[in-house]
Structures are given as C-alpha cells and as structure tokens.
Amino acid sequence: MTEPLLSIRGVTAYYGAIAALKGVDVDVGEGEIVTLIGANGAGKSTLMMTIFGAPQARDGAIVYDGQDITRTPTHKIAQLKIAQSPEGRRIFPRMSVVENLKMGAAVTGYAHYDADLQRMFEIFPRLKERANQRGGTLSGGEQQMLAIARALMSRPRLLMLDEPSLGLAPLIAKQIFAVIAELNRTEGLTVFLVEQNAYHALKLAHRGYVMVNGRITLSGAGRELLEREEVRAAYLEGGR
Predict the structure, then answer these.
(1) Which residue from 216, 172, 174, 209 is spatially nearest to 193, judged by alpha carbons?
(2) How large is the average pLDDT for residues 51-70?
(3) DSSP character at residue 56
(4) What's the CATH code of the domain at 20?
(5) Is residue 141 part of a domain?
(6) What domain range includes position 9?
(7) Is residue 240's pLDDT more than 80?
(8) Which helix (H) or strand (E) element contains residue 35?
C-alpha cells in the first residue's frame, strides 16, 4: 500500500481513568474499504470518535492525507473531506429527509447541492419517495440510508460508518452493504467501517482489523480474516 489516506499510530484514549484505546495502529489506504470488527465494548466506536477528536487521543498520532489531526477540533476535521455516519444514526428526527440532507451539505457549502441531492435520490430511491417526511417517522432502514446519504452530501474522500447494519433486517442490511461496495467500486470512495456483523463486513472489505479490549489483535485481507479459525469461532456464530 502507498502512503495511507488515514494513519493511526499508537493511539490511546481514556474515559476518566479507564483506558478505552491502548496503543491502536490502523491504516486506511485511498480507495480501500477497511473494516474494524470486535465484540460490544471492544473500543471500536471510541476509535471512530477519537479520529473526530471527541474524545481526543491522549497518546499517539492520527494523520489524514499527510496532515496530523490528533489535536484538531472536531468542526475543523469535518471540513477536511471526512464524513461520519455515527452509531445509532443520529438523524434530525423533526426535520424532513431533504432538510437532513441539506444539513450534510452545510459542512462544505451548497455549490453542488442540487446535483448531490439528485444523486442521493438515485442511490437511495426510498429517500426520494420520503423526501418531505420527517426523519423520525422513517423505518430503521430508511433512517440508516438517510444517515449515510447525509454524510455523502459533503462529498467526502473518507466515509466513516459506525455499525450501519445495527438493528436492521438482514435484507435491508444487505442493501446497505451493496451500496457501500458500489460507491467504492464506481467512485473510488474510501470507507472505514466499524461493524458487528463480521461476516458481511469482512466479505465487503479489502482489509480488516480485529479489536479486543482496546487493542488490535489481528489484521489482514478481509477474506483471509474470514477464514481464520479464531475469527470464525469468536465472531461468526461458531464458524459460519
């Protein structure tokens, strides 16, 4: 891999006196889908939030596109063509679908707003049908589509997705993963994916990391990790 778009080196993060991340090293190359899998409470979401500066890393370095962003404020990071679709979706429930998408575009300005809005409706036709509906009245799958589309409205180089399949019916989750794969294949979008559904995540990803108790314990090509006995036993329902 050439110089990674995102490089995380020796990163620690704390909640009070509790170490949530313990010297984490992760690389995400331009045009890659990289996934981070692990059990609940392993520190996966904390790593996502630490990249965005909340909480800030206590030790180590986070470098994006050659720039050290370890101490950069969250709102400045959002302007660097990094977008996040957080765990739990966190859409604006009282706003309409279109208003939610407009909030996503606000980060980088509205120069391409109309074209980008139409593009989101092509990627997620269901959102077009629900354009004027309040976000809070959408189904779980539709809300996840909206959260991803809102992130894409800022035209990111790096899309960070935290548990996009959480709580979704298997068919809807499959559709979400298919969209991620298509965006990567056709547009070269770089994706860093945190996901509990290890099977789908590792099938989708070029490379993967396994996190246990705030540490990276394994890394490798997605398909290779899928075949590893310890991964299958721990994360794939006893060897799916």
Answers:
(1) 209
(2) 94
(3) P
(4) 3.40.50.300
(5) no
(6) 1-81+189-240
(7) no
(8) strand 33-37
Query: Could you tell me the CA-to-CA distances from 54 to 50, 76, 122 in Å, in that order?
Result: 5, 12, 33
Q: Round the CA-based radius of gyration of the chain to a whole number and report it.
A: 17
- Whether 7 and 158 have beta carbons less than 8 Å apart is answered as no
Within-domain flag for 75: yes
Write down the pLDDT at residue 238.
43
As beta bridge partners, residue 83 has 159
Q: What is the residue type of 148? A: I
The pTM of the full predicted model, rounded to 2 decimals, is 0.92
DSSP, res 14 = E
pLDDT in tens, 9-32: 999 999 999 999 999 999 999 999
Backbone φ, ψ for residue 83 (5° rounding): -130, 145
Identify the CA nearest to 162 among candidates 75, 70, 85: 85
Is there a domain that residue 172 lies in?
no
Give the DSSP H or E segment for 233: helix 229-235
117 domain-assigned:
no
Preceding amide of 170 cis, omega within 30: no
C-alpha to C-alpha distance for 77 and 35, rounded to whole angstroms = 21
Q: How far apart are CA 20 and CA 109, in angstroms?
A: 35
pLDDT reported for residue 166 = 86
1 pLDDT tier (thresholds 50, 70, 90): low
Least confident of 58-62, 84-88, 187-191: 84-88
- Say whether pLDDT at 40 is over 90: no
In sequence order, the β-bridge partners of residue 65 are: none
Say how many domains are in the chain: 1
